[in-house]
Design the sequence.
């Protein structure tokens, strides 16, 4: 027994590679595989730890170029040179910080800075930028158009609407825009963008009530009736008409403007612009809820316009909406619970 132990010690000392010791190929392969597994495990654990930390780490605020602007110099340029081309290009550059960006977060950040710095000087005790440019007869048309585009871009965002309506519910600004439209100080794209801005603000009931109290129907209905609106302007005029028609303050005004209302809607029905379809159908549905409008529509043969629109079927929903509107105009009321009809 003692001899065997001594022989084993001798072999390990003299012939280290004779057995599967630490330096044998089998042992090396085993140690290499264990090292690779350990390295893989450490890598996966590290990646998981980094991902978890990044997921709980708050996102850094988006850098916005607007924060570097000198708004005092911008206001000085616009107020001192309201009709120059340089002012028009400056307003265009401000607008593009909202429109020419692939990130909605960047646009919201830009609007937040515009509101904080009061870029339109809505809080000014003397005069806002909107009043100074739009109400001035000598100011260049290019500056007025760029300003209307800028206001429209701001009104496209909730934060922008909050800013525009922050001072007195936007009453002064609405008066200025309406006065500019009624006096025909702007036309073409400038008029279209001014109407678009008003329509986006009219999603709030308080704005609709203010517009109705200002007599906005007196400008909107004749303008639609001319039939000389661009496709963009027609869509927003129809949408604004729908919002005003749905207002709780509209019944008395609709009854007073019944003929103009039906004439304007007939003009919209004759358009081949598919963008106005949902708005005009909705406005007719709201208007036909009043007996005086229905009676006047029957007297003026308004059914002809609806039938013509149904035959063309420009929009996908015309075949569903217009038959219902025809029955509504004729005084057929629907009881959805009992599935029956009654003539009123």
Sequence:
């Amino acid at each position: 027994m003692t001899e065997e132990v001594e022989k084993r010690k001798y072999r390990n000392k003299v012939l280290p590679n004779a057995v599967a010791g630490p330096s044998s190929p089998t042992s090396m392969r085993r140690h290499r595989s264990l090292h690779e597994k350990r390295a893989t495990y450490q890598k996966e654990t590290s990646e998981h730890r980094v991902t978890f930390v990044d997921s709980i780490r708050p996102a850094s605020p988006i850098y916005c170029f607007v924060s570097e602007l000198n708004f005092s110099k911008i206001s000085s340029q616009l107020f001192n040179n309201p009709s120059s081309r340089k002012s028009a290009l400056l307003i265009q550059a401000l607008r593009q910080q909202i429109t020419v960006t692939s990130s909605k977060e960047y646009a919201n950040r830009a609007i937040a800075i515009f509101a904080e710095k009061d870029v339109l000087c809505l809080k000014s005790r003397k005069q806002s930028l909107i009043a100074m440019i739009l109400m001035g007869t000598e100011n260049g048309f290019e500056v007025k158009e760029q300003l209307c585009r800028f206001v429209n871009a701001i009104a496209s965002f909730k934060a922008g609407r909050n800013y525009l309506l922050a001072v007195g519910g936007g009453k002064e600004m609405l008066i200025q825009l309406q006065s500019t439209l009624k006096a025909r100080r702007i036309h073409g794209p400038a008029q279209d963008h001014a109407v678009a801005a008003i329509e986006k603000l009219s999603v709030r009931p308080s704005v609709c009530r203010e517009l109705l109290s200002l007599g906005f129907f007196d400008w909107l209905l004749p303008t639609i009736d001319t039939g000389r609106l661009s496709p963009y302007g027609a869509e927003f005029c129809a949408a604004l008409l729908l919002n005003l028609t749905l207002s709780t303050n509209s019944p008395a005004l609709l009854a007073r403007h019944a003929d103009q209302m039906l004439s304007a809607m007939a003009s919209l029905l004759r358009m081949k612009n598919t963008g106005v379809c949902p708005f005009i159908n909705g406005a007719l549905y709201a208007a036909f809820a009043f007996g005086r409008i229905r009676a006047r529509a029957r007297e003026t043969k308004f059914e002809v316009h609806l039938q013509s629109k149904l035959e063309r079927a420009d929009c996908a929903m015309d075949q569903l909406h217009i038959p219902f509107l025809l029955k509504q105009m004729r005084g057929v009321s629907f009881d959805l619970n009992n599935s029956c009809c009654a003539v009123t």
